[in-house]
């Protein structure tokens, strides 16, 4: 089955990482994997555009079926391979509701992270304002406190939507890992730090850890004062 799948991806991209974790959790190793270079603009290559006219990664194909949006690809994999690997959508209404809620809150979480760590990338030099970056940092702090509170309420050793791994963890963990990669303090945010350490030990996360993070484990200190 996995041999019919192709994933074009970039190292360290949370949307790509979401799909890679989902594939691992569903025991779909052996898919056609092509690592592309953002520096060389390979995500704008014809190979990507043929699958994804937006010129973005992930670009994912299963046979003739194309699902490029990372959340959509994760839902698709769980739906098509329900009985295989980890069950990622719980049966109970309450557990399912919490999973969906946190999943989609995860999109705002990712946006607020990107607004800080990629501010210089997204905003042209002449349009950058210290006051805007300060607002972005304050919004990220508010968001971090929310997630810290969610985890505290669930108790030690919990995942983002309960005691079991769900699609929420598949799609939101890459955001959390990126926070710590960019210098977030586990002492300041102990519940997120505990969650990060818990998820890092999962085989699916170890198998899909960004290659350039392995080559250079140090990361950056952009968020050290957040």
From TrEMBL:
Gene3D superfamilies: 1.20.1050.10, Glutaredoxin
GO cellular component: mitochondrion
InterPro entries, A to Z: Glutathione-S-Trfase_C-like (IPR010987), Glutathione-S-Trfase_C_sf (IPR036282), Glutathione_S-Trfase (IPR040079), Glutathione_S-Trfase_N (IPR004045), GST_C (IPR004046), Thioredoxin-like_sf (IPR036249)
Coiled-coil residue windows: none
A matching Pfam family: GST_C_3
BP terms from Gene Ontology: glutathione metabolic process; L-phenylalanine catabolic process
UniProt-recorded Gene Ontology molecular function terms: glutathione transferase activity; maleylacetoacetate isomerase activity
GST N-terminal domain: residues covered: 3-85
Domain GST C-terminal: 92-220
Domain of life: Eukaryota
UniProt cross-references to PANTHER family, sorted A to Z: MALEYLACETOACETATE ISOMERASE
Protein name in UniProt: Glutathione S-transferase rho
């Amino acid at each position: 089955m996995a041999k019919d799948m192709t994933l074009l991806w970039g190292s360290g991209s949370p949307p790509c990482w979401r799909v890679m974790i989902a594939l691992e959790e569903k025991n779909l190793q052996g898919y056609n994997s092509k690592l592309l270079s953002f520096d060389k603009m390979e995500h704008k290559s014809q190979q990507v555009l043929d699958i994804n006219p937006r010129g973005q990664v992930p670009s994912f194909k299963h046979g003739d079926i194309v699902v490029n949006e990372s959340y959509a690809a994760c839902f698709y994999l769980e739906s098509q391979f329900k009985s295989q690997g980890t069950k990622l959508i719980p049966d109970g209404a309450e557990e399912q509701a919490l999973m969906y809620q946190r999943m989609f809150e995860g999109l705002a979480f990712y946006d607020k992270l990107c607004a800080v760590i990629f501010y210089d990338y997204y905003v042209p030099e002449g349009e950058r304002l210290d006051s805007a970056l300060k607002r972005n940092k304050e919004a990220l702090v508010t968001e971090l406190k929310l997630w810290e509170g969610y985890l505290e309420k669930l108790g030690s050793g919990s995942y983002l939507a309960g005691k079991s791994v769900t699609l929420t963890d598949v799609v939101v963990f890459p955001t959390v890992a990126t926070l710590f990669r960019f210098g977030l303090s586990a002492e300041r945010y102990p519940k997120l730090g505990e969650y990060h350490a818990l998820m890092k030990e999962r085989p699916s996360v170890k198998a899909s850890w960004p290659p350039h993070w392995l080559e250079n484990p140090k990361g950056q200190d952009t968020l050290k004062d957040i």
